[in-house]
């Protein structure tokens, strides 16, 4: 098992990429804390982990608050006395909107979840990892940070910010043996997919148009990101830090 006896915290773990990654971490031997605003979703992920013989707990948490981020780190340390992996995955999308029509409330929400949430997770998790002189801090970025689509400029900004933040954190954490890596998925079959397509529900025409932009001819499944996250969190990726790993079927070429 690649992650035997390690402790992982996954934000946004109640669905999509977060849920798949939490399940994959547990399957590789990690004890997992599943954090989400959707407590029911978090508990559902935990049930799936336990059904597979893994160990996990669910924790309600709003990643935009310092209290929630501090609590998840402290709870992990209280329960398991270590913290090896944090996957700052929680995020929100943007409807296709011209910049002049983006109101400040939307801007603030996207930046609060997608950027501040990552900052706060790092603020409370990295000191623990630095002290232990081990750990991996993963961030969900996006291909939007590299190759934005029209009308998603604020979302792209938020993901570009966390890619740069990843590089800065990696330099800071490296002397302590801690790695920091971002993952940049292309559109993925998660609850946010319809929003990226500017639809209430995914339809065949929009899906075909999105798939046509991906050289490998399909979109991501959450498990594509989960397998990448397991690799990056494991010792197999011991020399990878500060990178933004594109999981995009060639979209950013």
Estimate the mean pLDDT confidence: 96
Looking at CATH, which topology would you report? Rossmann fold
List the strand order in the largest sheet. 3-2-1-4-5-6-7
Question: Can you identify the CATH class?
Answer: Alpha Beta
Distance between the termini: 33 Å
Q: Which class best fits the helix and strand makeup?
A: alpha/beta
Low-confidence stretches: none
Pattern of helices and strands: EHEHEHEHEHEHHHE
CATH homologous superfamily identity: NAD(P)-binding Rossmann-like Domain
Q: Based on CA inertia axes, which overall geometry fits?
A: globular
Task: Give a description of the structure.
By secondary structure, the protein is an alpha/beta fold. The protein has a single domain (7-247), classed as Rossmann fold (3-Layer(aba) Sandwich), CATH 3.40.50. It has eight helices and seven strands. The chain has a seven-stranded parallel sheet, sandwiched between helices. Helix 2 links the parallel strand 2 and strand 3 (55-60). Helix 4 runs parallel beside helix 5 (153-173). The model has no long low-confidence stretch (mean pLDDT 96).
Spell out the blueprint of helices and strands.
Elements: E1 7-11, H1 16-27, E2 31-36, H2 39-51, E3 55-60, H3 66-80, E4 85-88, H4 104-132, E5 136-140, H5 153-173, E6 179-185, H6 193-196, H7 204-211, H8 222-233, E7 244-247
Parallel strand pairs: 1-2, 1-4, 2-3, 4-5, 5-6, 6-7
Helix pairs in contact: 1-2, 1-8, 3-4, 4-5
């Amino acid at each position: 098992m690649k992650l035997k006896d390690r402790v992982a915290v996954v934000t946004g773990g109640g669905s999509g990429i977060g849920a798949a990654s939490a399940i994959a971490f547990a399957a590789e031997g990690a004890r997992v804390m599943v954090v989400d605003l959707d407590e029911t979703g978090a508990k559902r992920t935990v049930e799936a982990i336990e059904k597979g013989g893994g160990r996990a707990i669910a924790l309600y948490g709003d990643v935009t608050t310092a209290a929630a981020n501090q609590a998840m780190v402290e709870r992990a340390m209280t329960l398991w006395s270590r913290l090896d992996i944090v996957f700052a995955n929680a995020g929100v999308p943007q409807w296709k909107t011209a910049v002049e029509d983006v109101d400040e409330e939307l801007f603030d929400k996207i930046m609060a979840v997608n950027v501040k949430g990552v900052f706060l997770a790092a603020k409370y998790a990295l000191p623990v990892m630095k002290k232990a002189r081990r750990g991996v801090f993963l961030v969900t970025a996006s291909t939007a940070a590299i190759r934005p689509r029209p009308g998603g400029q604020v979302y792209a900004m938020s993901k570009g910010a966390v890619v740069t933040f990843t590089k800065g954190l990696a330099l800071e954490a490296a002397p302590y043996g801690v790695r920091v890596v971002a993952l940049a998925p292309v559109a993925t079959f998660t609850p946010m997919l319809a929003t990226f397509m500017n639809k209430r529900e995914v339809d065949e025409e929009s899906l075909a148009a999105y798939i046509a932009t991906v050289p490998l001819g399909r979109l991501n499944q959450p498990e594509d990101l989960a397998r990448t996250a397991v690799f990056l969190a494991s010792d197999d990726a011991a020399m990878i830090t500060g990178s933004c790993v594109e999981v995009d079927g060639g979209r950013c070429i």
